[in-house]
Amino acid sequence: MSKYTNVSIKHLQTVEERKDALKVRVAVFVDEQKYSLESELDSHDDVSQHWVAYCDKENQDGTVEKGVPVGTIRLIPKPDGLAKLGRFAVLSDARGLYIGQQLVKSFIQYCKENSFNTIVLHSQYPRRGFYAKMGFMIEENDDAIFDEDGTPHIRMWMRSL
Ligand SMILES: CC(C)(COP(=O)(O)OP(=O)(O)OC[C@H]1O[C@@H](n2cnc3c(N)ncnc32)[C@H](O)[C@@H]1OP(=O)(O)O)[C@@H](O)C(=O)NCCC(=O)NCCS
């Protein structure tokens, strides 16, 4: 088991940096969760904001790799101050270290500072507890479970940022 320390969250500024986000997304959504690469690499990346969590990784043999990408999140801007949260993932052996929580907090902070008033996301149904802990809500008139890329999802909202 690897040991991760020194977490830092970076708001990506270049297409080159986005390769780090894609590494995490492919490891989690394609290799682990078996979504197709085609569905993973959709058309929204160029108009989105991206963040990556980097860590120092201590391997079992004692060697340390600096600045390893371990998590990512994406914001798609929509009309009327709406931000769509998605492509949110942390590598399986780095989970439970509050890296996901830090990514979502950076995302919310950015929304507050950039005139977004509402965040919407499509939660994989078993992940809804995570988002609820972060303050997202399932709304009464919008509580249907729907299929997205072959798995059940539910819409969750954070309003009045
Ligand atoms: C969802 C995900 C990004 C969370 O990342 P993480 O870094 O492991 O989460 P954190 O360590 O920040 O968890 C923070 C809290 O949420 C809880 N939590 C994590 N996953 C949860 C879940 N599925 N249901 C309920 N609570 C959950 C943790 O136990 C922790 O709770 P605590 O504060 O009571 O200790 C990660 O599990 C992941 O990449 N999963 C696979 C990809 C995925 O499903 N992405 C989301 C698609 S909608």
From TrEMBL:
InterPro entries: Acyl_CoA_acyltransferase, GNAT_dom, GNPNAT1-like
One MF term in the entry's GO annotations: N-acetyltransferase activity
Domain of life assignment: Eukaryota
Coiled coil: none
Gene3D superfamilies: 3.40.630.30
Signal peptide: none
Biological processes per GO annotation: UDP-N-acetylglucosamine biosynthetic process
Pfam families documented for this protein: Acetyltransf_1
UniProt domain N-acetyltransferase: residue ranges: 7-161
Protein name: N-acetyltransferase domain-containing protein
Organism: Thamnidium elegans
Lineage: Eukaryota, Fungi, Fungi incertae sedis, Mucoromycota, Mucoromycotina
